[in-house]
Each structure stands twice: as structure tokens, then as C-alpha cells.
Amino acid sequence: MMRTPQDFDRPVEVSTTLVPLMDVVFAILTFFIMSTLYLTKSEGLIVNLPKAAQSQSQQQTRVNVTVMPDGTLALNKQTIPLDQLESNVRSLMRATQQTVVIINADTAVTHGNVVAVLDQVKKIDGIKVAIATKK
């Protein structure tokens, strides 16, 4: 069918649908949300940390001690016995920096296990101790 000169005088209806644009925007938003979930820095083994209202992050040399629910210890993700904790932490200390030992204890760990770890770590002079919590 051919258009006549009278057809050019009539306005042509143009419609714009926003549904495909919204789909693209939501797809991009979903991508960025999912990708930011993988940007977190995990320094210890995965345990269920207790929550604390007054927690602060430490910006010094970190040594991670993880206390598992069954009571086993891990120093920077390496399983060690409790009696070797002090000597291994001493070997990881740097003379030029303040060392912070971060204790990651599961909520199922008994108070006695955490105190035993604290006792071993506090034998080292000039060391700071922090207990990891969720915000």
C-alpha cells in the first residue's frame, strides 16, 4: 500500500514502552548487588559470631585465632593445639608493628575455652586482644 500526500498530514502515533527499560535497569541493579556480596574480606574461618553494639574494627597487624564450636583452635586458618598457641603467635609478631590478636569464637563455645585462649595470648607482652563480633 502506498502513502498518498494526504497521509503525511495525519499525525503518526508513537508509543514508548518502559517495561524493557525497567527490565534492563533491574538486571543491572541485581548484578551490582550480587557482585558487592563477594567483596567482603573473610579473614577467619566461618563461625557464628555473637553480636555487640560497641564493636570497632582494628587497623593493625592482625593474627586470627578461631575457636570452633567443638573447642578446636585455628591460628590463621591452621589448626593448632592450645599449648602451642603462644609460641606460634610470637613467631607471627612483627617487631615494627603493634600486633592485634583477634579471637573469633563461635556462640556455642564455652566461656572456659575462650578464657583459656585469652590466658595463652595475654602471656605475650605488648600484644592487644580483640574479640570478633557482628555489628
Report on this model:
- The chain has 135 residues and is of the alpha/beta class.
- It folds into 2 domains: 5-37, no CATH class; 61-131, Nucleotidyltransferase, domain 5, CATH 3.30.420.270.
- The protein is built from 3 helices and 5 strands; from the N terminus they run αβββαβαβ.
- It has a 5-stranded mixed beta sheet with strand order 3-2-1-4-5, covered by helices on one side.
- The longest helix has 19 residues, at 19-37.
- It is rod-shaped.
- The model has no long low-confidence stretch (mean pLDDT 80).
What is the structure about, briefly put?
The chain has 135 residues and is an alpha/beta fold.
Key words describing this protein structure:
135 residues; alpha/beta; Nucleotidyltransferase, domain 5; 2 domains; 28% helix; rod-shaped
Topology, please?
Layout: H1 19-37, E1 61-67, E2 73-75, E3 78-80, H2 85-92, E4 99-105, H3 111-121, E5 128-131
Parallel strand pairs: 1-4, 4-5
Antiparallel strand pairs: 1-2, 2-3
How large is the radius of gyration? 29 Å
Biggest sheet character: 5 strands, mixed
Backbone structural class: alpha/beta
Overall pLDDT confidence:
80
Tertiary shape:
rod-shaped
Topology order in helix (H) and strand (E) letters: HEEEHEHE
